[in-house]
Structures are given as C-alpha cells and as structure tokens.
Amino acid sequence: MTLSARGPATKAIRPDCPPPLDAVQNIGRRLLAWYDQNRRDLPWRARPGERSDPYRVWLSEIMLQQTTVAATIPYYQRFLARFPTVEALAAADLDETLRLWAGLGYYARARNLHACARAVADRHGGHFPRELAELRALPGIGDYTAAAIAAIAYETCVVPIDGNVERVVARLFAIGETLPRGKPAIRRAAEQLAPQGRPGDFAQALMDLGATVCTPRQPACPRCPLRAECAASRGGEPEAFPVKEAKRQGRLRRGAAFVVLREDGCVLARTRPASGLLGGMTEVPTTDWTHDFNEEQARADAPALLRAHPPRRRAREGSRLQGGGVGRQRSSPLVAAWQRIPGVVRHVFTHFPLELAVFLAHVPADAEAPAGMRWIARAGLDGEALPTLMRKVIAHADAVQESGVANPGDGGGELTPFPPAPRRGAHRSR
Fold this sequence. Notes:
This protein has 430 residues and is an alpha+beta fold. The chain has two domains: 21-240, Endonuclease III, domain 1; 253-306 and 336-410, Nucleoside Triphosphate Pyrophosphohydrolase (Alpha-Beta Complex). It has helices at 21-38, 54-64, 69-82, 86-91, 94-101, 108-123, 132-136, 143-154, 163-173, 183-193, 199-212, 231-234, 315-322, 388-403; strands spanning 253-262, 266-271, 282-283, 305-308, 331-334, 339-348, 353-363, 367-368, 373-377. Helix 2 (54-64) packs across helix 3 (69-82) and helix 8 packs across helix 11 (199-212). It is elongated. The termini are far apart. 33% of the residues are buried.
C-alpha cells in the first residue's frame, strides 16, 4: 500500500498497529534506563539529579526551532554569556539581541525572544510560570515549547512533541495517517508511553532517541532499545514513517542588491522595518523581491548619493553660499558608476527561494549616506545584525573583486578591489 506521496509504494504495514499492551507499559521505563546510559551532554541540560533552569530550557528550545544542535550551541553559549538571566535579556535593546542572533536565521524568533523576556520580567517577576496556559500566553511560545518548559523545568506530566518525538512514536506504532492530520494520534500514543515519574527525563529521552538512533534516514535500528516493540521496524519499513505530504516550494522571487563601497572602507547599509521578513536586521540596500523583477529597471532603484563638499575657508563665502552658518557644508548629487557584477546570490527562505543580482559602486570618502541609511566600517560588520543573505551578498562582491573580473555586459574593465578593513585595535578617525 502507498503510505506517502514521496516515493514508491512501501511494504504492506498495517497503520496504527501498536505494540502489545504489556510492552507499552514497559517502554517508558526501558527508555529511561537507556537515557541514563546514553543521554547527550548539552550545555542547556541540567546534570543528573539537578533541577533544570526554566530560562535555559526556554532559550535552547527557541533557538533549536528549525535549527540543528551543532549550529545552536555556539549561539546559545554567546547568548548565555551576555544574558545570564531572563532579566538581563529583558533589559537589553532589541538591536543587541538581533546582532547576537545574526546568522541563526528565522529572525522572528529573536524578536519574540526579546518580547517574551520582557513579558516574563514585567508580568511574572522574572520567573517563568508553571502553568501551560500561562506559558502559551507568552510571546513566541506555542504548544510544544510550553510543554517542553513544563516537563523539563517543572516536571509536569506532559509530553512535548517535536520532530524527533514525532518520528519515534510514529514508527513505534506505525501511525500511517499523513501529517499534520496524524499529530493527534501521535500525541495520544506518546502519552500512553509516559511512565510514572521523571517526565522531563522521559521527554529528553524521546528527543535523544530520535536525534541519535531513530534518525530520518538510515535509522540505527540494531542499536534501538525499543526495536522489539517497533511496528515499523518489524515491517521492514521504518523510513516510511512518519508519512508527510510532499513539500511545495514557493515561487522564485528576484531582486537586486546594491553594494556601495566608500574609499575609506565603509559599506552603505540600512535597517529593515521592524516587522516582516528579516525585520529589524541590517542590510545593504535592495529592491523589492518580486516574481516579475526586471533587471533593466534595477538601476532606477539604486540609492541616490550625495557628495559633501569641504567647508569654505572664508567665512564670508560660506555665509554667502549657505545663508549664514560659518563652516557649514553643502552637498551635490553624486553619480555612482554602477557595475552589475557576474552571477547572482541565491538564498532559500522557508516559503520561497530568492535570487539577487548584485550591483557594485565605489564612491569617494565624502559621499553622504541617503536618508534612512548609514555607513558602516567593514571591520564593524561583525557587530551588526547582518543576516546570512546579506553576508552572502557582501561575500559575493568580495569574491568578484578579488578575481578582478567585471561583467562583460557592463563594458567596464577591471573592478577596483575593496580597501582593506582596518585591523582590530588600529587607529581610526572619528
């Protein structure tokens, strides 16, 4: 019978075929015994016999959404070093939170993280509530995260269902209903397995089993402590579960990014609107990202630059030109020589893929930033909330310049290399 639209028909495994009742009653205890010997050593986990910190549980769970453990750990450690308590995070600016988050992706999580910290500090005196309903009422906390905090930090008898738990339970019971419709059945089955006592350890045992043994591809069934009870393993088709609908990739969007480099080594940047995709993050100027992007029209959307003239030496002349104001500067339009550099920058968001054409311009040191934009020293980019997409754009411009090859279609010879970024600790003019 066909269980999934992902591929050919699988062997005939009867869906929802549970292990024997006596085995179900013993699974929780055996899984805990396995966990005691094989638990992962993760920086947010309490040591055996110690109580888990709700703040650390919450922080790790938010970061782990759609993100691997390996990618999460260095971000978690930096966050914890800077914000050791939820009160410290609540007192910080959102911009600082976004800067520390830059590169981890799914930036709405960072905004919700900051909002949640402030809600915990303001509404709950800096302590995460114990009740599921109160946890779910906090910004960015859904059913899973609320259950994880309640089970792991407060030993509440609830089973949080993440992707790892979902996969273990679906295979154990051979639950063949296509997700997400099959989620209630998986939840009911998981609750049957829960032993009396140690709900936090049981939840983490299921997570660890899914992450290290019952993996999405090529699960290590011979090492699984539940192999004898696993209906999917007995049927010879563990990878057929859970059954998922085929992913639909959104339509391609395209746009242009404008890398403007000042001869003193600064890059033109701006902050995106607080809401929406990449909200509050730093970016180089871009066009809108559309399905019908016309590259020929992109130059019309390039940032308009001004050139600042040095103050007049004579106060009288400065007064005549500026209507008073000795020593004031005047500006004039700056025509940037835009080059369309070869290739495109590709990035995949959750709901759509994106391609950005990159335009490059070099401007003198007295070029002024347009309204709503600012110059950032190259050495200062690491301290900005620069998302992965924008790092790709700048890296692409760097790579093309290092090659010294201009786009033949632009008719312009070699590209001028970026000025080297100042060394850390080197003197920089104010």
